[in-house]
Each structure stands twice: as structure tokens, then as C-alpha cells.
Amino acid sequence: VWDNCLTFVKDNISDQAYKTWFQPINAVKLNDNALSIQVPSKFFYEWLEEHYVDLLKVALTKEIGKGAKLVYVIRMENAKGNRQPFTEKIPSTQRSNVNSQSIDFPSRQKNPELRNPFVIPGIRNLKIDSQLNSNYTFDNFLEGTSNRLARSASLAVANKPGGTSFNPLLIFGGVGLGKTHLAHAIGLQVKDKFPDKTVLYISADKFTQQHIDAVSKNNRNDFIHFYQIVDVLIVDDIQLISGKKGTQDVFFHIFNHLHQNGKQVILTSDKAPVDMQDIQQRLLSRFKWGLSAELAQPDFETRIKIIKNKLYNDGVEMADEILDYVASRITANIRELEGAIISLIAHSTFSKKEITIDLAEQIVKNYVKNNKKPISLDDIQNVVSDYFHIEIEELQSKSRKRNVVQARQIAMYFAKEITKTSLTSIGRHIGQRDHSTVLHSCKIVSNLQESDKQYRKFIQDLEIKFKQL
Ligand code: ADP
Ligand code: MG
Question: What are the structural domains of the chain?
């Protein structure tokens, strides 16, 4: 069976990918319709689940028929290459179900038996499968300056859902910075602490789809009712309802009901509420009722922690200089950081080579487009003075002209955000100021950004310019 699956897989992916990800797999047994395969590490399993689960599903269904299941057996291998056989079994359903099936909210008229796999008839009311990924716990979410506020607010909410002023809790930040992870962590912890509470995680995309289906089947009221009975509602990527009036109306309705009844709402978004577009004002204002907490880009120290944790979980060791190398090159996004580490371990596992700086360099290249020079203080002063049409000499002077002061403060702010330079040397470079002036400037810039639209636009324009350097 497995050989046939492999032939199918081989025809559908590149040679390189096949060699890397499929050749090392051994089939171990076939039980009814469950095929067990042995993979070299947990990373490997995660990679397969992330990238090839659909392909595998098709292959297995072809070979075994409907209801085919895949069970992963992880062969742990520590850094020295000693094998510890069969330490962990993970049924493939753990993740793939969440991705591949949609939750149907039960329709009371049509489906009194609630045969849907995600809705199990309960003793009291309904039991709803929360759609939570059990890997995304607080324990696995490492703390750093970039996520401290969001993490502690999330913990507070998880320990007292509906009972804090953080309602809704809105977690926002760029791609791959941990929004989905934190959202799941809250859900998991609530379920752990309050087993009677109904928790539901849903992406805004799926929510929208369900709503459209409901309307077309004349089930809109059931749809609303279903969401109104949960105690904790988590909607991931809420920005995706932008421009969708019907979905916004229905969400507004559900939100109000939950909020009025002391139920907890958790939202994630790729931007702050002030920057969201095409979302009704009444919703935006509700998003701001509770707390908006940002997940920023992790600093170097946090990146190191995250990598170390990942390695530790997989029983792999890596030299400090390689850790440093990877963490200093891949800076923007934790998903990429994880991806790079996974490939690094995978490559070394298959080629049976130790992880060297050379190997790290090759792999990191795939993640960071062009290994750019870091942005210097001079670059920052050039870009800022150019943007505000001020001479660099003026920027560095003692001038108190309003526009010059503003540009100088912004330059200091970016110097602190972007470069690794100390406040003292930033101050010395930009106009002979001391470090407390620099700190003060950074605070002013942060505050003004929040209160002043025009000002925020300056900062955003400049951010783009720095990205393009
Ligand atoms: P987002 O939803 O913001 O795009 P995710 O929550 O999907 O990002 O996170 C991307 C990956 O990074 C996930 O595998 C997640 O587990 C991991 N991750 C993010 N933040 C952390 C953290 N603080 N500690 C450990 N892993 C993290
Ligand atoms: Mg996400």
C-alpha cells in the first residue's frame, strides 16, 4: 500500500522534495484502514502535516478507500544519532481535521440528531468541538518583550473569561508573530480550567463562509443561535470580514449578545483597529471596548529562546554560533524562523551531516531574500532628512525649528527601533544629544503615532522606505 502511495506522491511533487520528505519514511503497519508510518522526528511530522497532508490524504484514499487514516510514529533521534524507537504516536487527525473539515453549526429543524462530527450530543445542551490545536499552549509560547503585554492579557482572560475588562481582547500584529498560537492557548487553558465552558475557535474566513451558506439555506437564525450559546468565542483574523456587510451585521449581533451576557470574545487581526478598513464603525468601536494588545517582531533574545525551545522539544542540539547565525538573519517572522530550523534539522538528519555554518547559510538563504546589509544610523538620517526635505546638517544641528525637531525625533525613534545601537551612541550621532533625550523622543513619537493620523502616516511611509533599502 505504502509503495503505491509513494509512487503517487512521487508523480506529484518535485524530486528534491520527494527525496527529502518521503524517502526517509518507513511504513510500519496497516490496521484496518489505518496506515502507520514512521518518521524521523517531530519536526518531520509537522512538516508533512503542514505541506503534504492533502496529497497524502488523496493517495491513501486511493489505496485504502474512504475513511483511510494515517498514524505517525516518531522515531526520536538525538543529536548523536542514537535511535530511541517509537516514543510518540500522533494520529494525523490531530491537525488535519481542523484544516480540512468545516464545522457545520447544527440546524435545529433539519438535524435534530446532530450527526455532525464536530457536534457531539451532550448531557446538557450541546458539546461543541472547540477546534483547538493542542500544540498551541501557553507553555509553548515563549515570552519576550515583543509579546509580554499580549501574553499576560491572554493569560488573564484565560483565567477569568468574561470576568476581566479585556472584553473583547484583540490581539494584533503581522504575519507569523503568534496571534493564532495565543488565541488557541487561551481556548485550551479555559477548557482546562473550566471544563463546563463552551469554547469555540473559528477563523473569520470560515465564519464568513458559514454565514453565506446559512443564508442560502435559510438558516440564518440557527447560525446566530449557535454562536450565541458559546461562553468563549475566538475569531481569528477578524480583518477578513472587511467589506462584507452581511457578515459584519451578523457578527455585530452575535458580539452584542455575548458581550451583554458576560461571555468572552477574543479577536485577532493583522492590524490595529484604527488601521482597519471597510469595517463598520459600530464594530470598530466595539473592538476597542476591551484591550488591544500588539504582538511585535521578536527581538534577538526572544528569537534565540524560541529556537532553543524547538530544538529541546525535538531532542536536537545545535552549536551556539549556528543558533546565533540563524537568529540574527531571520528576524521578521517566527513562522519563518521555525521553518528554517526545521529544514536545517531535516537536512542534517538525512544527509547524516552535522549542522555546520555552511549548511545554515544555504538554508537561511531560502528564507531571507537578499542578505542585506543592516541599516545604519547614516541610512536612517539620510532617509528621514530626505523625506522631510531637510538637510542632514540641519537634522544634526541644535535647531529648534518645529519641522526639524520633529524629523530629528523620528530619526531617533527609527534608530532605536531598527539598529542595535545604544541610546547613547544614537544621541551622539544625531545632534549631540544624551541618551535621555533619545528616550524622550522615542516616547513622543510613539504617543503621537497613536493620537495623530497624519503623524502615523509619516511613520508608515518611512517604514516602507526602510524596508525598501
Ligand atoms: P500568526 O497567527 O500571527 O500569523 P502563528 O500564531 O501562526 O502566527 O505563529 C507562527 C508560528 O510561530 C507558530 O508555529 C507558532 O507556534 C510560532 N510562535 C509564534 N510566537 C511564538 C512564541 N512566542 N513562542 C513560541 N512559538 C511561537
Ligand atoms: Mg494566524
Answer: 2-100 (3.30.300.180), 119-295 (3.40.50.300), 300-367 (1.10.8.60), 377-468 (1.10.1750.10)
